[in-house]
Amino acid sequence: MASEAIASTSASSLQMDYMQLLVTQLKNQNPLEPMSNYEMSAQLTQFSQLSQMESMNTSFSEVLATTEHNYATSLIGKTVTFVGETSTGTTDVIGGKVDQVLADKDGNPVLGVGGYAVGLKDIISVKE
Predict the structure, then answer these.
(1) 107 in the Ramachandran plot: left (φ > 0), alpha (ψ -120 to 50) or beta?
(2) Range of 102's domain?
(3) Is pTM beyond 0.90 here?
(4) Are 59 and 16 within one domain?
């Protein structure tokens, strides 16, 4: 979610920069050759499209987060395998039952498997 916040901030900042550029362009245009209505409407259309794309991106991010959380919850009680560090300090494929779903600092789902916290991207296999 932190990267989403950065992307959202960047998109908002981009919109503000675009509007400032448009206002500066209007202030400094040649009064004998002002911007045509066609050029103005084209620029405003681009600005509107940018706003709509930002809104769609936010909506898709929310849908993805909900889908990931629902998938993680559906894994409770199932056996998963993942690569992790064993009690001896070596790296190996480890398996266990998912007993809970937690959230990391960014709100992403993390599976509780025994004493391990496992991200969805780290799952190798799932069994009933």
Answers:
(1) left
(2) 76-127
(3) no
(4) yes
